Amino acid sequence: SQKLQLTAVFEPASEGGFTCFLEEMPGVFSEGETIEEARENLEDAFRMMMEFIGMQREFVSVSPERAAHAS
After folding, report:
1. pLDDT, averaged in runs of 10, over the chain (71 residues)
2. Exposed site from 22, 25, 57, 71, fewest CB < 10 Å?
């Protein structure tokens, strides 16, 4: 199986610690006291987003028969 490669961007937070986000996925962001903690939190945020997308697909999927007649 092929691994998805994403770019994590870390920035120092003005109040201390770090904020971070995934460049390719707006809406996946987090923070932490250290870069390592921020990275772990970002991985959790990514997993939650993937679970959310998976749940949405269950409710929004269109059957091939309906897609063919939609146009």
Report:
1. 89 97 94 98 95 76 56 47
2. 71
